[in-house]
Design goal:
Blueprint lengths: L1 H21 L2 H8 L4 H8 L4 H9 L3 H10 L2 H8 L4 H10 L2 H10 L2 H9 L3 H11 L23 H10 L9 E5 L5 E6 H6 L16 E2 L4 H10 L4 E5 L5 E6 H19 L14 H28 L1 H6 L2 H4 L1 H25 L7 H31 L1 H31 L9 H24 L2
Parallel strand pairs: 3-4
Antiparallel strand pairs: 1-2, 4-5
Helix pairs in contact: 1-2, 3-5, 6-8, 8-10, 13-14, 15-21, 18-20, 18-21, 19-20, 20-21
Subunit structure: Homodimer.
InterPro entries: CBS_dom, CBS_dom_sf, Mg_transptr_MgtE_intracell_dom, MgtE_N_sf, MgtE_transporter, SLC41_membr_dom, SLC41_membr_dom_sf
Family: Belongs to the SLC41A transporter family.
Length: about 450
């Protein structure tokens, strides 16, 4: 059954692409009509800017907004440039305020200003409030469209309030409970309201609230929402007054973006911030070239070390055979530690104050790995090149793995301590550092053991 559905989707995609190539609008309209919003989004992500605008224009009005809201903000920005001003203004006014702010961040200032001015006064005020919070804070990603209830309300009154606000609220499954000064005092779920006595008060069924400060990092608030499996998290100001709400779908989007950014930087490139096929080749080049240049410059340290020990290599040429193996193993060991600790930082399992705990733990892990690999290397190398070379390689593995794991575990914590991105200090820079330092350790051990 799955295979049949997949084939059907592929056929629909081909029909849409064929109609676009022929600029056959009636055929395009017919091909799009049976598709879901998710399928249309998938097609739009693989089209160029002109084709994307053409396809979007033939969508039914009701489906157009759903498709637009499911696009990445970068693609929304591209699409705005291909639509008429009146169509853009209508879409913009229908968006949720938090989604609207994401789109504004992707648009040129003049276009963003024009769209804001075209909003109804109330919507413009709400959007401006969100724009006033710092970039990267949860205030920029929260929704100000929520339903709150009072603790003294009856259940019947609270449900009536929910019903009245169904059309404009971001979510009604988790309801913040506030006092007369909008101070958050708890939360109540819609499920609890529906099964409670209609004449009971909200206070009798509400629960303590897990909340986020409006200025805290969006990723931290989203992680808390996901870890505690909450449908929504109230967002409060410094006086604990309710200003917005973070829903679980927005939290997952924030975490997905953060994960993509970390993975890109760990691998030595900048995040694309848009689907792969919509990114121009020049954008792909820019996302990688700076890192490659930085790493190439860093690799000159390795060349310098080889130059210093050129005489040692000339006396025992066999040593050169093991250079790729050793620096590769050292880099991989450091990368494993850095990736593990960076992930633990993101999940909140590790804090910067745990620096020495992590250092000691990774020291032991590296030492154990070095003893395992070093013992194996000693046996194999001794059989092939003699016990003296085997001793050099075995001791180097022990020293190199211990050093690489310790440095790899500590670097992300140091990055977080100086308010830098831990991913930036992870794999690329650690590999460069470990390559140079590992060779230094290798040749010093070789000189001592071989007496050269």
């Amino acid at each position: 059954m799955t295979d049949t559905r997949t084939q059907s989707i592929d056929t629909d995609d081909k029909a849409v692409l064929r109609a676009l190539d022929d600029l056959d609008l009636p055929a395009l309209t017919a091909a799009v009509r049976p598709l879901s919003a998710a399928q249309i989004v998938g097609i739009l992500e693989r089209l160029d800017r002109k084709q994307r605008a053409v396809l979007y224009r033939v969508l039914p009005k009701g489906q157009a907004l759903e498709v637009f809201e499911n696009l990445d903000p970068s693609l929304q920005g591209d699409l705005v440039g291909g639509l008429q001003d009146d169509a853009v203004a209508t879409l913009f006014a229908q968006m949720h305020p938090d989604d609207r702010v994401e789109l504004l961040d992707e648009l040129p200032a003049t276009v963003a200003r024009r769209l804001l001015q075209g909003l109804p006064p109330r919507e413009r005020e709400i959007t401006a409030d969100i724009l006033g919070y710092p970039q990267g804070s949860i205030g920029r990603r929260m929704s100000p469209e929520f339903v709150s209830v009072r603790p003294e309300m009856t259940i019947r009154h609270a449900l009536e309030r929910v019903t009245e606000r169904l059309s404009d609220a971001e979510t009604v499954y988790t309801l913040p409970v506030t006092d007369g000064q909008r101070v958050l005092v708890g939360v109540v779920s819609l499920r609890d309201l529906l099964r409670a006595d209609p004449d009971a008060t909200v206070e009798s069924v509400m629960q303590p609230a897990t909340w986020a400060r409006v200025g805290e990092r969006a990723e931290e608030a989203a992680r808390r929402c996901a870890d505690r499996k909450l449908l929504a998290v109230p967002v409060v100001d410094n006086e604990t007054r309710l200003v917005g709400i973070l829903t679980v779908d927005d939290a997952l989007r924030i975490l997905e973006a953060a994960e993509s950014e970390d993975q890109a930087r760990i691998s030595g490139s900048e995040p694309l911030r848009r689907p792969y096929f919509t990114a121009p080749v020049s954008g792909l080049v820019r996302s990688r070239v700076v890192w490659l240049l930085v790493l190439a410059i860093g690799a000159t340290l390795t060349v310098q070390v080889l130059e210093v020990f050129e005489a040692t290599l000339s006396q025992v040429v066999t040593l050169a055979l093991f250079v790729p193996l050793l620096i590769g193993t050292g880099g991989n060991t450091g990368n494993q530690a850095a990736t593990t600790v960076t992930r633990a930082l993101a999940l909140g399992d590790v804090r910067t104050r745990d620096l020495f705990k992590v250092m000691f733990r990774e020291f032991r892990v590296g030492c154990a790995l070095g003893l395992i690999l070093g013992s194996l290397a000693f046996v194999v190398t001794s059989l092939l090149y003699g016990p003296s070379i085997g001793t050099v390689i075995g001791l180097t593995f022990v020293s190199l793995c211990t050093m690489a794991a310790t440095v790899g575990g500590v670097m992300p914590l140091l990055a977080r301590a100086v308010r830098a991105d831990p991913a930036v200090f992870s794999n690329p820079f650690i590999s460069t550092f470990v390559d140079a330092t590992g060779l230094l350790i290798y040749f010093l051990i070789a000189r001592t053991v071989l007496g050269i």
